[in-house]
Design goal:
It is a single chain. The chain is α+β, with helices and mostly antiparallel strands and 438 residues long. The chain has 2 domains: 178 residues, Beta Barrel (Ribosomal Protein L25, Chain P), CATH 2.40.240; 204 residues, Barwin-like endoglucanases, CATH 2.40.40.10. The chain contains 10 helices and 19 strands. The strands form 3 sheets. It has a 6-stranded mixed barrel. A 6-stranded mixed beta sheet has the order 7-11-6-12-13-14, covered by helices on one side. Strands 1, 8, 9 and 10 form a 4-stranded antiparallel beta sheet that branches. β12 and β13 form a beta hairpin. α1 packs across α2, α1 crosses α3 and α7 packs across α8. 50% of the residues are buried.
Amino acid sequence: MRRLALALLPLMLAGCAGVVPSADVAPTPRPASLPYENEPPVAGRTPTAPVPVIDDRQASSYIIPRATPLPAITGAGVVASADIGQAAGQTLRRGPDIASLPIAPDDARAALAAFRLSCPAVMRRADASGLTRPDDWRASCEAAARWSDQDAARFFADQFEAVQVGEGAAFATGYFEPEIAGTRTRQPGFEVPVYGRPADLVDVDLSQFSPEWAGKKIRGKVKGSDFVPYEDRTQIEEGALEGRAPIIAWAADPIEFFFLQVQGSGRLRAPDGSVIRIGYASQNGRDYTGIGALMRTRGLLAPGQASMQGIVAWLRANPAEGRAIMRENKSFVFFRELTGPGPLGALGYQVEAGSTVAADPKFIPLGAPVFLSMDRAEPNGLWVAQDTGGAIKGANRFDTFWGAGDRARVIAGGMSARGLALILLPRGSFDRLAAQAR
């Protein structure tokens, strides 16, 4: 979804770099039923014992070097990169046989469907992690197209090998597609503008200036002859974009809209029942600050309150202080209306509940299957890295997508799991990378 922060609680959006990852009615003063209210702080938690991480005594390993420059790749829509390998310096360890992993049949079928959807993208885009090349995926993508869904688990065992990137100690949170009150036109009770991308917002690809900045971008605006930071959340909320950015809708509640921005996409439901679906269009380039971490540090949250529900309750009970805390997150997300399938992930395809996971593309190839074995059952199993997020940083940081609705909101809002992550790469990748390292 190109979320600037997907990392939900209890870490609650713990942090985000300013560098943008590469890569894609009747008035009412307040809706009668608001998300996050009157819900348990954590739901669906089923403790489990995760598979232990792999160390050098258990498997062959090596330090990932910076990838050698790729030759030019020809063909329509194919992207080449002169210098990739952001995962350089991480230890890569060979994982267990995939057939030995506890993968449920339904889980495998859903992951196979998600992998098929990602195939066109993974075969044409450069992998910023340096772990794979576009052509590495061809055999598995061709096999996926003809493989029976009834034997999906064998597909992954046949086509892939498991590796552990870095120390393997994974942390997973959750995200979902929220629904809040909103309308297309401004009216009493709907006063919060939902901005589209401003015309003067400029993206700068730093790789054009130095190969050391490959895969990095910054955003800002041109002022005279200077490139300067874009307006922050406070300035935008105080009207700085009036006349400079399109307004695609109006939301009813600033707190709800703040959390929709965190998710990066969602639904606006009007009192007449009509729905506008919106998705991430861009962001102001400012650093993301997690308000949950701030509130915990300042002692504002009582024990057991560090969930989405607890944070929202505090913000509502303390409106002036709550607005000030939300404004400490200077990041601001711009949206576009979605008329087709969605929400869309970083690969440009629809993300699927229970199958899509957001990962850091500097360490994990987008489109790669990911196996999670965590200390709670809900996120365990196969996912496909189809999305990114500003707060999802590092080789073993993941954000699991749970869809829309009450169940998705509650599970995502309380998701905080630790355990093991294994990345599934096309067969032969480990030996090729090991040879390159030597």
